[in-house]
Amino acid sequence: MVELHKSGKPRKDILREYDLTPSTFDKWVKQYNQSGSFKEKDNLTPEEKELRE
Q1: What does the alpha-carbon distance between residue 29 and residue 24 come to, in Å, rounded to a whole number?
Q2: Hey, is 37 helix, strand or coil?
Q3: Contact 25, 52 (CB under 8 A)
Q4: In this structure, are residues 29 and 20 in contact, taking their beta carbons and an 8 Å threshold?
Q5: Would you call 43 exposed, middle or buried from its count of C-beta atoms within 10 A (0-12, 13-18, 19+)?
Q6: Contact present, 34 and 40 (Cβ < 8 Å)
Q7: How many CB atoms neighbour CB 22 within 10 A?
Q8: Can you tell me the distance from the alpha carbon of 49 to that of 47, in angstroms, rounded to the nearest whole number?
Q9: What are the angstrom distances between the C-alpha of 19 and each of 24, 32, 50?
Q10: % residues pLDDT > 70 (the chain)
């Protein structure tokens, strides 16, 4: 779905077609842009990483 968005498909169409909430979709796009991964462990802030250690 993120790739569809990157290729130019409008956000509103993706949300409607896949029955997604805006916050979920936005989180996925943010994670992909930050780390290229959707895994939570790959998207932790430095503070969160420190707390886990």
Answers
A1: 9
A2: coil
A3: no
A4: no
A5: middle
A6: no
A7: 10
A8: 5
A9: 10, 20, 35
A10: 92
- Which pair of structure tokens corresponds to residue 27? 């989180």
Two tokens, residue 44: 């932790």
- pTM across the whole model: 0.66
> Given the structure tokens 């991964």, which residue do they identify?
37
Q: Which of 27, 30, 1 is nearest to 16 (CA)?
A: 1
Q: Which residue has the higher pLDDT, 30 or 9?
A: 9
- Alpha carbon 6 to chain centroid distance? 12
- For the record, the structure tokens of 17 come out as 């077609």
State yes or no: pLDDT of 38 exceeds 80. Answer: no
